[in-house]
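debug: dumping io for the single-chain case to check the tokenizer round-trip. Nothing else runs in this session.
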Amino acid sequence: MEAKKSTSKIVTNSTFYLHISRILIFMILYLRLLKESFAFALNALRNNKLRTLLSLLGVTVGIFSIIAVLAAVDSLKKNIVDSLDGMDKNTIYLFKYSFGPTDVEEWKRDQFPHVKYDEFQFLQKNMDDIDKISFNFFTGDQTLKYDENTVNSIRVKPSTSDFFEIEPFKVEKGRLFNEAESNSGTSVIVIGSEVAEGLFKGGEPIGKQIRLYGQRYTVIGVLKKMGENAFGDTNDVAVFLPVNNIRKLYGDNSNLFTPAILIKPKEGVDMEEFKAEIANKMRNFRGLRAGEINNFFVNVLSGFTDFIDDIVGQMNVFGWLISGFSLLVGGFGIANIMFVSVKERTNLIGIQKALGAKNKFILFQFLFEAVILAMFGGLFGIILVWIIAMILTSVLDFQFVLSAANILLGSSLSIAIGLISGILPAISASRLDPVEAIRTGM
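debug: decoded output
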């Protein structure tokens, strides 16, 4: 019995090793087949340089179009996200305008009243879940003067002191104005780095007086340089002063200013409940009856980023639709070239088959040729996008990003185009009868 068991084990082991050997031999032969097919494909491409170049152009344009659009959209999104970095995404902008699409008709929105300073004070005193709240004016650009020096197109941002704790600010010199100065409307001002350079030419700005709105303001702080964000906004060419100072000069109903209340909630607050509480407080303060629509908008910054994401998604779809036509043309170009190549090499295919070449060898030979064409076309398209992105980044004050995901996508699309475009010509070449193929070529 033991002898039979050992004999059975030997037979089983022998069968196992035989199967392994066959698999290894098959893999080696298959790899050799792929290698030879690849070499034939490269040789065919080298021998037809002009045709290869023309085939490359179609795929290059298609891949360039798609990757360029995706890279531009990704860059835009990244710059927007970076510009909002450091800000609490739950920050609320309460005023008469909506960040995104709304069901309220435009003529109704035009009749909405602006938010008031007493509404800001009412919310400040009557809401427990507020961390910071600020009253701001949005207004047009102004000209500032110091002695003989003048700077133009400066963004003026009147606000209460808590605004500096809602948005991120870094001070290079001096300080920001405090609550007492904010409440009293003291004539003090905090200026951006480029404003300081333009007015004081490297001199000491702190304590100096500059002219704005026909008034004198004492410089108490200079902000660190931050650069321009995706919205074209920068604090480098902005100045900040107490909103109550402007209210004393122009009142609350000037058309020069658009008031807004900025609210930063406490951590862990349920945002939907918080927004609903703000809306209820505002409705009660304004005396709105049941059934009347809100004549204000409670805009959450995260909602604005969601809105941006929707726009980015639509831009991506639009880009894919346009670029898809370029890819389609490129694919048809490769397929056409491959059919021509099959026809030109019919005699060679017949000779290869007569010498023992299998259908798979012929199939892979032409399939590799199509894939290599598409891959090089895609590679050139990606390189072209990268070069243009580098140039635009250096010329413009905007960071263009070519992500690894987009590079991988471009490469995958190239391979897919090559496979799809080359499969029919490759199949037709592999099915040629060797005798007919040789006769056709003679």
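debug: round-trip ok. Residues 10 and 55 are 58 Å apart (CA to CA).
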